[in-house]
Amino acid sequence: MIKFVFKWVFRLVLLVSVLAVIFFLSLDTMLRVVMENRIRAQTGMDAEIGTVHFGLTEPVVSIQNLKLYNSPDFGGTPFLNIPEIHVEYDRLALAEHKIHLTLMRFNLGELDIVKNEAGQTNIFSLGVTAPVTDKKSGGAVLAEFKKRTGFQFKSIDVLNVSVGTAKYIDLKSPQNNREQKIGIENQVIKNVQSPADLAGLAVLVALRSGDFFGQLVVPGAGFK
Predict the structure, then answer these.
(1) pLDDT value at position 123?
(2) Torsions phi, psi of 162, nearest 5?
(3) Euclidean distance between CA atoms 113 and 194, whole angstroms
(4) How many CB atoms lie within 10 A of CB 26?
(5) What backbone phi and psi angles, to 5 degrees, belong to 47?
(6) Where exactly are the structural domains of the chain?
(7) 108 pLDDT higher than 70
(8) Please, are residues 54 and 30 in contact by the beta-carbon 8 Å criterion?
(9) Strand pairing class (178-192; 98-115)
């Protein structure tokens, strides 16, 4: 189960990093609608953004109340409700097409794991297919990030993560729906350079979630 949680934890952090790149590329527009359209073009998901703040004198981007919705393959259901993404970044690294974040504060209010009528699960439809269980495969994931964004991921000096609630929604069999409060607040991970650096966070999520994820990966659950 921890291996499973490890995979989706890194997929979420990678997705947020992709979103950060999209926001950086939108600095010249300052328009929420443009950023929402770019998110759709990059991820295939509709987005709603509450407010966006770009620091004019310091390298800071703050996004409040970001909501992502699944593609039509998953019924257009909610996917992520993110009350806050706060990013402080290295301008010199960005100019060299490298992502070096000095601080990322990521508050995941709600994650909705959706299984559609074809038996597919949204969390594994993010375009990140490489496993993340060792250094070699972790390198493959980072290579995928560069391919998708055109930027090389360097590091996150300080990652501050909060996780609220996880839901499982089965569009074919609603009786399987369930909800789990995880309740992680301000968990700090320093010097994130690869998927392996998120192993401790994955363990904490697994412990806080009880048997929620275990129920999704048991034989016959159809979670893939």
Answers:
(1) 78
(2) -125, 140
(3) 24
(4) 20
(5) -135, 150
(6) 2-217
(7) yes
(8) yes
(9) unpaired
Q: What is the pTM of this model?
A: 0.78
- Distance between CA atoms of 132 and 134, rounded to whole angstroms? 6
- From first CA to last CA, the distance across the chain in angstroms is 13
CA-to-CA distance for 46 and 43, rounded, in angstroms? 8
Q: Which tokens is 113 given?
A: 């794991």
108 is written with which tokens? Answer: 């995941």
Which residues are paired to 106 by β-bridges?
A: 85, 161
pLDDT at 22 over 50: yes
The secondary element (H helix, E strand) that includes residue 200 is helix 199-208
**CA pair distance 15, 35, nearest whole angstrom:** 15
- Which is nearest to 195 in space by CA: 14, 4, 72, 2? 14
* pLDDT at site 56: 64
